[in-house]
Q: What sequence folds into this?
């Protein structure tokens, strides 16, 4: 198995990200032993398949948190999580804050951006926004560079 197959698996996972995806499904889809897929995926990406899926789902959920008034439960369910508790746990692990805190931060940032003349404060906010945008872009463009270059964990402090 080479990095092209892993890239294809990443494409498959992102295309079906809000569906239930099992290792058995991947093994059948790609005609490889599931244990082999698990080892090779970790080798090439540094992630387990479940970690990759959770990363994608969490980052897909950031825009609805920022730009909609949907409940956090609705956002969690829409993005493939089966419970609010698990979503919140994974969100905090990956982003560094809870989904509610994330939403509050962006609400505050929006207000500050609209009302502040403090250049230092605005530069710090822009840096935080750029970090999230960069990660969202990498998820959207997965497969254009090697899998190892794309799959990097970025935490927002």
A:
């Amino acid at each position: 198995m080479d990095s092209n197959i892993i890239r294809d698996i990443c494409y498959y996972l992102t295309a079906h990200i809000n569906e239930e995806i099992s290792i058995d499904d991947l093994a059948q889809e790609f005609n490889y032993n599931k244990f082999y897929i698990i080892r090779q995926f970790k080798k090439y990406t540094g992630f387990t398949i479940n970690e990759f899926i959770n990363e994608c789902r969490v980052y897909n959920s950031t825009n609805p948190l920022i730009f909609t008034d949907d409940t956090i439960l609705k956002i969690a369910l829409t993005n493939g999580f089966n419970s609010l508790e698990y979503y919140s746990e994974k969100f905090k692990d990956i982003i560094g804050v809870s989904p509610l805190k994330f939403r509050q931060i962006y609400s505050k940032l929006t207000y500050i951006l609209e009302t502040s003349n403090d250049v230092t404060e605005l530069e710090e906010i822009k840096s935080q926004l750029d970090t999230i945008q960069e990660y969202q872009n990498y998820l959207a463009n997965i497969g254009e560079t090697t899998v190892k270059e794309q799959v990097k964990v970025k935490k927002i402090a």
About this structure: The two ends are 36 Å apart (CA to CA). The chain has a mean pLDDT of 81. DSSP finds nine helices and no strands in the chain. The CA atoms of residues 96 and 156 lie 6 Å apart.
